[in-house]
Model the fold of this input.
Amino acid sequence: MKITMSVRYQTKRDNNMDVELKQFYSSSQTYLERLKKHDEEHFASYIELCKRLIPKGSSILDCGCGIGLSSYLLANAGLRVTATDISPLFISEAKKRYANKPKLRFFVGDAIRTSFRNQSFDAVCSYDLLEHVTDVKGVLKEIYRIIRKGGRLVIFTPNHLDPIEHLIVCILWKTKRRYKPWEARSRMGAFYQFIKTTFLSIEKAIGINKKIYYLQCVLSDSKNACGDDFDATWLTNWFDIENTLREIGFHIEDTLPRDFRGKVMRIMRILRIPKAIQSFYVKMRVNCIIVTARK
Done:
């Protein structure tokens, strides 16, 4: 019996993936239909945080705006919004929906090579962008370039480096039709992933491993795969994002979820486990990475 032990992570980017991603997002009607299903509640936490941190009237870039609902909601909050996405298909849909909204502009643009001048915006915000880029550091450097001194960065992106998820999958193993790029294909493989990602999380948390691990993403119009993070390009995690932002020159602000619950956290608090360990556990386990930073 053949057993797939683990997923291979690559530290070298696939240069061809840039072209493939652009083609996919520019042509996938299935992905477009998925984006149309997002409602205001989907972006509620993102919009609320941006409203709390960014003063009304500020000039912001909503980077990776999709079909523009997040941008529209930010403009409704009193912000002057420039919104970009790599897909002409998505931007065309955004303009159809929100073309007449004041203080809101849409442009096709690549996050790693924008056309904006240095220090163009008071803030840059992104929702579910970073997990789809092929050069994480390059994109964050470009964002740093176009933010004004003292400006803010707000990032929402999913977490794909949770060792406990692999352990749960191992214990409750069941086969699937499709596997996400970071998922093991067998029970033994899931257990190996648990061990591997546990050590990887610790290495990243203490700063001895700052490598970005890229994935073989799945670009497909299949309704079973399209959009459900099968198209993730790298192993997104809180530690890599924070480490990279610090290297570039951002000052990280504390945005850990205050209401993160669970038996483990309750036990930690009762036992008065050091906050650094509690913070590590939260960053490892949360589904959504939320990082804010100031230039």
DSSP finds eleven helices and seven strands in the chain. Residues 16-163+195-294 form a domain with the Rossmann fold fold (CATH 3.40.50.150).
